Amino acid sequence: MPQAAGALHTAPGIELVGAEKWFGTRAEPVFAVSETSLAVSPGEILVLLGPSGCGKTTLLRMMGGLLRPTRGTIRVGGNDLWRAGGRDDAVVRELGMVFQDAGLFPWLSIEENIALPLELRGVPKAERLERARALTRLVGIEDFGRRWPRELSGGMRQRAAIARALSYDPHILLMDEPFGALDAMTRDAMNLELQRIWLQTGKTIVLVTHSITEAVFLADRVVLLSPRPGKIDTVVPVAFPRPRAVDLQATLEFLAIVSALRRRLEQIS
Question: pLDDT-based confidence at 73, cuts 50/70/90?
Answer without folding.
Answer: very high
